[in-house]
Amino acid sequence: MKQAITLFLIVLCNLSLFAQTTLEYKLNVGDTFVIQQNAQQTIVQEMDGATHELTNDMNGLLEFEVMAERDSIYEIAFTFKDLNLLMNSSIQGELMNIKAKEVFEGDLQSQIFNSLLDVPVQLILSKTGDILEVNGGDSLVTKMANASGIEDDFSKNMMKKGLEKNFGSEALSNSYKQLTYFYSDSLVNVGDTWQNEYSGKLNARNTWTLKAMNDTIATINGTADVIMEVNELGNVMNLSGTQATEIETDIESGFIIKMVVEGQSEGASTMAQLGDQKIPTTITSKITYEQIKD
C-alpha cells in the first residue's frame, strides 16, 4: 500500500513538472510583426457643477522587425507605419484631426506627424518582454521638429521638449512596455501568478495570471494598480486607479495575438491659468492591440 501511494505521488509530481513551461519571447532574425493599435480615452473634468468632456481616439499600425539576437536579448526595429489622432472637446468641438499619411501644405500638424512614419527606432527587448533600451527616439523627435518648418531655434526647441514626452526614447520605452512586458522569469503552471512593474506617465504595478494554455496559445490576464502623472503645457494631472488586461499570445514566438487593456483612474488636475485650484478629473480608457497577419 505504501509503495502504491509513493508511486502515485511520484506520478503526480512528474505530471506537475511536465505541465510547467517557460513563457517568453522566442524570436528569429527577420521575424516581422505588424500590430494594429486602437485606443479610446475619455477625460471628464468637473468644476462648480459644470462638466467638460474630452475624448481622444487613436489608431495606428506598428511594425516590429527582429534585427539581431545576442546574450538572451533581441534588437528590434520599431516603426510607425500609420497613425491617426482625433481629439474632441464637449466645449470647443474638434481640437485635432490628424491622419499621418495625409500631408497638407501649411498644416504643421500633418507635416510633423507624417515625418515619424517609416523611421525605425531600435528597441532592446528581454525575453520576458522588458524593454531595456530605446535608441533613435530622440533623433525621431528632431526629425519631427524639423518637419514643422519652424526656423526660430527657441520655438523649435520648445516643440522638441513637448514631442519628447511622447516620442523620445524614454517615452517610447515606457509607453510600449504595456504591449510587451508581461512574462514571468520563472517556470509557470496554469493558475500561477507573478508580478512586474513599469513606470512613465503611467506607473503600473501588475499582477499576471496564466489562465489557460494549449499547444499554440497562452491566455494571460492582468490586474494593476496605476498612478498617472501628466504635466504638459501648464496642465497637471495626478490620478490613481486600476487597469485590467486580457492577452492571447502565440506560444511559438511569444508575441501577442491580441491584447485588450481597460483602465479607470480618478483624482485632480490643475491648470496654470487657474492657479492652485484642483479640478476633479476622471479618465477611462480602452486600448486594443491585435496582430495583423499577411
Description:
- The chain is of the alpha+beta class.
- It has one domain (29-292): Roll (Lipovitellin-phosvitin complex, beta-sheet shell regions), CATH 2.30.230.
- The protein contains five helices and twelve strands.
- The protein has helices at residues 2-19, 108-114, 137-147, 153-167, 169-180; strands at 32-47, 50-70, 73-89, 93-99, 121-126, 131-135, 193-198, 202-213, 217-232, 235-250, 256-271, 279-292.
- Strands 1, 2, 3, 4, 5, 6, 7, 8, 9, 10, 11 and 12 form a twelve-stranded antiparallel β-sheet that branches.
- Strand 11 (256-271) and strand 12 form a beta hairpin.
- The protein is globular, with a radius of gyration of 22 Å.
- The N and C termini lie far apart (59 Å).
- The relative contact order is 0.14.
- Mean pLDDT is 88; it is low at 7-18.
Secondary-structure arrangement, i.e. CATH architecture: Roll
Q: Please report the distance between the alpha carbons of the first and last residues.
A: 59 Å
Decide which structural class fits the backbone: alpha+beta
Number of strands: 12
Radius of gyration in whole Å, from Cα?
22 Å
Reported by name, the CATH topology is Lipovitellin-phosvitin complex, beta-sheet shell regions
